[in-house]
Specification:
The N and C termini lie far apart (about 60 Å). This protein is of the alpha/beta class. Strand 10 and strand 11 form a beta hairpin. It has an eleven-stranded mixed β-sheet. It has twelve helices and eleven strands. It binds adenosine-5'-diphosphate and magnesium ion. Adenosine-5'-diphosphate binds next to helix 1.
Length: about 350
């Protein structure tokens, strides 16, 4: 047992609430309606996990909520702040105004992922797909204009069509691609204690998912190395919905289903946060052994949770509509008994893209 002090119990505000950090070696589902405090509570758990364990954490952060994870709040004591400063916490940004930036090497993607980014189907678009399959792409030689010119000017009509497709979709213009810069996967391979991928600042809607695909595919390809990582995905419905809406989403969902089913034995553990259980793929949801539930009003969603998480007592689930912000039900492997918790304070600065309304000068 590695006790993580995450707050106090709802029944006894003087009693610390503890979850078992050693049991994050399985998948965790985090849910509650918008504004119920999911992201804040997730932050509290991650902070304790970083302080009390050695487990490396990777965060897919679509709202830049963890962009300041490296910075402690002013009210945090000097000793704790110093311990925090010793942790190797890296934040990679998607907005082009903030460094360091988050990049993926297009050439590192598997053929099927490259095809998904180009919306190519192996059957329907058999010739273009085949041209892609047999393209020679060295990581050192990739250069956008030369690459496109070679394709569009090729003798092979399938290569020409592939070139036009890539050019027309303007995929290679995405700031996501490394184009010679280092890839996030290089940083990930060093396994810093925490690596935050702030994927919210991209301008093209396909980029956050392509970033996730690049990262997850890399982790999965190297699963035999068995280097543990807690893969935290906030707003997880954007990455593994029950019905994928694009080829990249389909590929991502497939990968997350695979990690949910088999990742545990390779040390790849998911921590997924979303508003409703039905918003993520059932084959991912059903693999989760830990539940953190914040306020949730809908009886239908609570019934769904009761169904999937048979270990949670009904009478506790039914209290969820009455939870205040920052209150949560924890159940499953990481808590000896199901418990109602009032979350403690964050140590680090909350990021997020909500801007304050400035008062008009008078
Ligand atoms: N336990 C808490 N203590 C103090 N403020 C909180 C707490 N939980 C949430 N908040 C605040 O409430 C707002 C919504 O919380 P958030 O975690 O972003 O909700 P969600 O992710 O469920 O939409 C944020 O501004 C956050 O700072
Ligand atoms: Mg949130």
């Amino acid at each position: 047992m590695i006790p993580l002090a995450v707050g106090t119990t709802v029944e006894g505000p003087e009693r610390p609430a503890v979850i078992d950090g050693s049991r994050l070696n399985r998948h965790t589902f985090w849910c509650g309606q918008s504004g119920s405090g999911k992201t804040y509570a997730l932050g509290v758990v991650l902070e304790q996990l970083l302080l009390q364990t050695e487990l490396p954490v990777g965060v897919l952060d679509p709202n830049a909520d963890f962009a300041e994870l490296g910075r402690t709040r002013d009210e945090v004591g000097a000793e704790e702040a110093a311990r925090w400063a010793d942790l190797d916490i890296r934040v990679l940004h998607s907005s082009t105004v903030r460094d360091p930036q988050l990049h993926i090497r297009f050439v590192d993607l598997s053929v099927s992922s490259k095809a998904a980014v180009g919306r190519l189907d192996p059957i329907e678009d058999s010739e273009e797909y085949n041209a892609l399959l047999h393209l020679r792409l060295g990581p050192d030689r990739f250069e956008r204009d030369r690459f496109l010119a070679a394709l569009v000017g090729s003798d092979d009509p399938a290569q020409r069509r592939l070139g036009l497709r890539i050019d027309n979709l303007q995929i290679l213009d995405w700031p996501l691609w490394a184009m010679g810069a280092t890839s996030v996967t290089d940083a990930l391979d060093e396994r810093p204690r925490a690596i935050v991928l702030d994927v919210g600042g991209f301008s093209h809607p396909g980029e956050p998912q392509a970033a996730a695909l690049g990262v997850l595919e890399h982790l999965w390809e190297r699963r035999m190395e068995r280097r543990p990582l807690l893969i935290v995905i906030d707003e997880a419905h954007n990455f593994c919905p029950p019905i994928p809406r694009s080829s990249v989403e389909a590929k991502l969902t497939e990968l997350l289903i695979q990690i949910a089913a088999e990742g545990r034995k390779f040390g790849l553990w998911l921590f997924l946060s979303t508003q409703r259980p039905t918003k993520i793929h059932p084959n991912v949801l059903s693999q989760c052994d830990n539940l953190g539930l914040m306020r949730m009003n809908s009886p239908r969603d609570l019934a769904e949770l009761a169904d999937v998480f048979g270990f949670v007592p009904r009478h506790l689930l039914e209290q969820s509509p009455g939870f205040r912000k920052g209150e949560a039900l924890f159940a499953g492997a990481f808590t000896e008994e199901p418990q109602l918790v009032r979350m403690g304070r964050r140590l680090t600065v909350e990021g997020g893209s909500d801007l304050a309304v400035a008062a008009r000068a008078s």
